[in-house]
Design goal:
The complex is a heterodimer of chains A (104) and B (462).
Chain A lengths: L1 E3 L6 E7 L3 H13 L3 E7 L7 E8 L4 H41 L1
Antiparallel strand pairs in A: 1-2, 2-4, 3-4
Helix pairs in contact in A: 1-2
Chain B lengths: L23 H8 E4 L4 E2 L21 H7 L1 E7 L3 E7 L3 H13 L3 E12 L5 H9 L25 E8 L7 E4 L4 E3 L49 E5 L9 E4 L49 E4 L9 E11 L10 E14 L5 H10 L5 E5 L10 H7 L2 E5 L21 E16 L5 H23 L1
Antiparallel strand pairs in B: 1-2, 1-16, 3-4, 4-16, 5-12, 6-8, 6-12, 7-9, 10-11, 13-16, 14-15
Helix pairs in contact in B: 3-7
The chains are: A alpha+beta (104), B alpha+beta (462).
Protein name (chain B): DNA-directed RNA polymerase RpoA/D/Rpb3-type domain-containing protein
InterPro entries (chain B): DNA-dir_RNA_pol_30-40kDasu_CS (IPR001514), DNA-dir_RNA_pol_RpoA/D/Rpb3 (IPR011263), RBP11-like (IPR036603), RNAP_Rpo3/Rpb3/RPAC1 (IPR022842), RNAPI/III_AC40 (IPR033901), RNApol_insert_sf (IPR036643), Rpo3/RPB3_RNA_Pol_subunit (IPR050518)
Keywords (chain B): DNA-directed RNA polymerase, Transcription
């Protein structure tokens, strides 16, 4: 849910339901790294409601697009993390296997 | 004579400030947490892309740079534990992974317990609570969530049976998870339907409606579903006891009708061999409890002494469903998962001789090592030279095992000699799985769940 203005698309508050610090902090980190963003932050209005408000202010681009780009960046980062961890685990397992063979 | 006006040189052009890179003290602030004696400083990560714009340094996240700098090193990997290093990632992401590992990865755990008989000293609800916390060795990805008003079927429920009994005369027995038997065909307890005139040839309705046996599915053909550990103590059952005393209904003198008499039920056999017949009444078998007759009169029960049950028995059926740790901690797939930043211990000055020995002894985990300097090059012909040979120096040998107890900077002026720091983008992750899934798969699933959350946000926005 976006709370913004039709006149000025560069700033908006996005209210996400069923979310908490897990996604909001990661999104805020990625948003901050984007050079188009002048301000971004998140707040949790009440801890009992699972709702997060993410505020984005940009240098002119519509805030929704910037948020979408950041989500996509976060997905790419996660994919890269996953593949690197899988590779490292495989290497470790094969190294362990080689050592076991050596002992045998 | 007039002095030449000194030309103003912008500070960025001064020879010792490298352009495009941060000066070393700012780089230190940006990448290290300084753990001083009072509190850590510079703990926040400078994420704003324009933070160092005035210096001409771009702080933004370039995906390419991230890809090049990100590294993972696995230190330890066993069936249940994993320790690995993630270098080049930020605390926000590391914490997101940790939170998902603890709270949002699904597992199977016992949720509903249908108690047919429980005459043990463990109450029903305590028993059910304990059963819920037992970790089950089953891959939760093979099952679906049970939605409300859904029939429990073979795709969303696992049924276990527990039947334990302690006979009269035998010593106290321990009921362990060994006795929890998997029922691949579903529940065996029959649902009592309201219409007893049902066709006797129709299938008797139980508490679950399995369409096929669970062990015909290929995943369970060779590995039956069992709890992860078969020696977890669920309950202890004792044998029956003799009841020395008796229980009398205490009835007010004024009430003589049967309605105010209280009787009570418990399965027991009461034998009072030492009590004479005129002050007890011995009764055997079952006595019915007719509810609390509270009509204001002074009625009560005078139970003098404890009653033991004959052969404590537990007979129950437990249904396990899929859930996440957010709802209840029994569904958390990790015993716990945590991370810490890599500690860095830097000697600001050379520490020698007596101080080096002191430092070496101070550290409880052995971060420091004594190194001899001046080895081998001096010829011993004099006792004076002999002393010089013994010069020692302290070095940092194992900074990774530092627990930040700050014992090394305690005392006067030690914090000018040593600097305790943490590297902000190097995380040492430890994952301890409870057994449902191996830890590396848990981590991969956690990252996948974060991706799914992003996808959900993107689809909401479009």
């Amino acid at each position: 849910m976006e709370h913004g203005s039709f006149q000025d698309e560069s700033q908006a508050t996005f209210s996400l339901t069923d979310e908490d610090h897990t996604l909001a902090n990661s999104l805020r980190y990625i948003l901050n790294q984007d050079p188009r963003v002048t301000f971004c932050g998140y707040s949790i209005p009440h801890p009992s409601d699972a709702r997060v408000n993410i505020r984005v202010q940009t240098t002119g681009d519509p805030a929704r697009d910037v948020l979408k780009d950041s989500c996509q960046d976060l997905m790419l980062v996660c994919q890269h993390v996953r593949s690197t961890v899988d590779q490292a685990v495989m290497e470790f397992k094969s190294k362990q296997g080689v050592e076991l063979m050596k002992i045998k | 004579m007039k002095e030449q006006k000194t030309t103003k040189v912008p500070v960025w052009d001064l020879p010792d400030v490298p352009k495009g890179k941060l000066p070393p003290h700012l780089q230190l602030q940006r990448t290290r947490v300084l753990c001083t004696f009072d509190a850590p400083t510079h703990t926040e990560s400078i994420q704003y892309s324009g933070a160092y714009a005035a210096m001409g340094v771009d702080n933004s996240l370039r995906l390419e740079e991230f890809r090049n700098n990100f590294r993972v090193e696995v230190i330890k990997l066993t069936e249940d534990d994993m320790e690995f290093d993630m270098i080049g990632i930020d605390a926000a992401l590391a914490n997101a992974f940790r939170r998902i590992l603890i709270a949002e990865l699904p597992t199977m755990a016992i949720e509903k317990v249908l108690v047919a008989n429980n005459t043990s000293v463990i109450q029903d609800e305590v028993l059910a609570h304990r059963l819920g916390l037992i970790p089950l060795k089953v891959d939760p990805r093979l099952f679906n969530y049970m939605i409300e008003n859904d029939e429990p079927n073979e795709k969303n429920t696992i049924v276990f049976k527990l039947h334990a009994r302690c006979e009269r005369g035998s010593p106290r027995i321990k009921v362990t998870t060994n006795e929890l038997k998997w029922l691949p065909n579903g529940s065996e307890l029959i649902l009592s339907t309201e219409k007893p005139t049902q066709d006797s040839t129709s299938k008797t309705k139980t508490y679950t409606s399995f369409n096929c046996r669970q062990d015909t599915l290929p995943e369970f053909l060779d590995n039956p579903i069992v709890p992860k550990h078969d020696d977890i103590l669920i309950a202890k059952l004792g044998p029956g006891q003799y009841v020395r005393n008796f229980a009398t209904p205490l009835v007010n003198e004024t009430s003589t009708n049967e309605a105010s008499a209280i009787s009570f039920t418990f399965p027991c056999m009461i034998e009072s061999p030492h009590v004479s017949s005129n002050d007890t009444f011995s009764f055997g078998g079952f006595i019915k409890l007719a509810g609390a007759v509270g009509s204001g009169k002074n009625e009560g029960l005078n139970v003098m002494g404890t009653s033991g049950s004959v052969g404590m028995e537990i007979e129950l059926e437990a249904h396990a469903v899929k859930g996440v740790g957010k709802t209840h901690a029994k569904w958390s797939p990790v015993a716990t998962a945590w991370y810490r930043m890599l500690p860095e211990v830097v000697l600001l000055q050379d520490i020698e001789d007596g101080m080096a020995e002191e430092l070496f002894k101070k550290c409880p985990v052995g971060v420091f090592d004594i190194e001899d300097i001046g080895k081998g090059s001096l010829i011993v012909f004099d006792q004076f030279i002999d002393r010089q040979l013994g010069r020692k120096r302290a070095t940092v040998a194992r900074p990774r095992s530092c627990t930040l107890c700050r014992e090394c900077i305690r005392g006067d002026d030690w914090d000018k000699l040593l600097s305790l720091r943490r590297v902000k983008d190097h995380f040492i992750f430890t994952i301890e799985s409870t057994g449902a899934l191996p830890p590396e798969i848990l981590f991969t699933e956690a990252v996948q769940i974060l991706e799914e959350k992003c996808e959900r946000v993107i689809s909401e926005l479009s």
